[in-house]
Amino acid sequence: MQYNILVAEDDVNIANLIKELITRKGNIALIAQDGEQAFKVFSNIKVDLIITDLKMPNIDGMTFIKMVREAKSKVPIIIITGYGSQQNRELAEQYGVFKILSKPCPLVDISNAIDSALKSDVQ
User: Fold this and answer.
1) In this model, does residue 8 exceed pLDDT 80?
2) Cis peptide bond upstream of 106, omega within 30
């Protein structure tokens, strides 16, 4: 089965690495540079998984996650961030985030998180 995976990441190099990982697994990567673009994609295309950074221009990752949850979506969300403060972790837990990974993180960790999230019954 092919999944649509939305990647909200303002660092083009990281976004491209994650996109390559997703496409190698036979899935479709939808790339957004910030939370505003990401929410537009989310609103127009059925997304099976969201991978987001927290620190992005326009709309930050946590605000984007809140908007997704306010839209009544239970789509699994993975956060990949260099800003994994306790406050952010607590907020992420409140929003039902599937996994938080700290930058830099090995691609194998991202790959495993994607596989686990897609197999979860969160949706």
Assistant:
1) yes
2) no
